[in-house]
Amino acid sequence: MQATTELRPLTSARGIAAWFIVLYHVRLAAAPTLGPDLVAFFARGYLAVDFFFMLSGFVIWLNYADRFREKRMLASLDFLWRRLARIYPLHLVMLCAAMVFVAANWIAGRGLPEGYPLAELPLHLLLLQNWGFTDHLSWNDPAWSISCEFAAYLAFPLLAAMFDWHRTRTSILLMIAAGLIALLFGVMTGAGAANLGSDIVRFGLLRCLTQFALGTLLCALWLRWRIGSRVPLFCAAAVGLGGFIAFLLGASEILTMPVALAGLLLVLALTGEHPRNPLGGKLIHYVGEISYATYMAHFLLFVAFKLAFVTDPHDIGAVGLAAFLLAVLAASVFLYHCVERPAQRWLNRRAPRMAQRDSTISTSAAVN
Predict the structure, then answer these.
(1) Which of 195, 224, 226, 238 could potentially form a cystine with 253 if both were Cys, beta carbons 3.0 to 4.6 Å apart?
(2) pTM of the entire predicted model
(3) 359 found inside a domain
(4) Would 309 be classed as within a structural domain?
(5) What would the pLDDT profile of 52-101 be if each residue is shown by its tens digit?
C-alpha cells in the first residue's frame, strides 16, 4: 500500500461524534438548561456509535488489508497486538477507576452500588461484556462498544483474507453494502427493535460487525474514487442526504441512518484532502485525537460529578453543565497524554516484529 497523508477531517469528525455521545448521556440531567429541542436532538446521540463502527472499519481496512494478503497469519498477530495496545490500556484504567468507586462505597458503608456486579468483572477484563453473556450494561457502560470492536478486530483477519475489495467491481461492492444494511435492518426489526439504540446487549455486536464491514467497503470505494471525477462525491452526498431525509419523513432509523452515515463518511473522506477543509484545523483535530479518552471517561466522571456536586439529578443547571463539560475536557487531555499514548507506545515497542509495518494513513481507528 502506498503511503498517504492523514485524513484529518475523519479524526475531527470522531471528536465531534464523541461529544455528541457525552451530551446524549447528560441530556436528561441538563434538560431545563438545554430545552426540549436540544434534548430531543441529543437523544439520538447513540447514532455516533454507529458512525464510529463504520469509521473503524474504514481506517483499519486502509491500514491493514494489503498486509494481510501479503503476510497472512504473521500480520494477524501484529495487528491484534497493536489494536489491543490502542484500546485496552485506557479501558483497563477506567475499569480500575470504577473498581475504586465500588470499593469506596463499600468502605463508606453504602454497600455495593447498582450497576457494578462483581461477577461480571472478568467479562470486562477480557473485553467480552457485550458478547451475549449478560442482559444489561454494567461498570463503564460505554465500553460495550469496545467489547464489540474487539470482536471485529478478531474477525478482520478472516475478512481480509477472504475478500479483496480492491479487485471487486464497484457494482458488487455497492450490492454487498446494501446487503449488510438490509441484514442489520431485517434482524433488528424482525426482533422488534424500534431504533439502532435498542437493546444494546442483544444487538450491539451485530451493529458493530455489520457496520465495521460496511466501513471496509467504503474505504475500498474511496481508494478508487479519491482521484478524478467529482461525480462520486455528489453521489455520496445525495445518498447520505437521501437517507437522512427518509428518516425525517418517518422511515425506519435502522434502515435509513446507516445509509445516511455511510454517505457522510464517504463525503468526509472524499473531501478530506482538500487544504481548506474546515475540519482540518488544529483545534478540532486535537479534539478528535483525544476523543477516545473523552468517550471512555465521561460516563464514570458524570457518576462521580453528580454524587459530589449535584443535588437535583434532573437539573444540574447551566453552571453545573459547563463545569462537567470542562471536567470531561480536562480528563480527556490528561488521560490522552498521560495514559493512552504512553501505554500505546510502550506496548507497540514490544509488538511481535514479524512483519515490517507499512506507512499508511495515521488516523487511528474509531471507537464508541
Answers:
(1) 195
(2) 0.90
(3) no
(4) yes
(5) 999 999 999 988 877 776 666 667 788 888 999 999 999 999 999 999 99
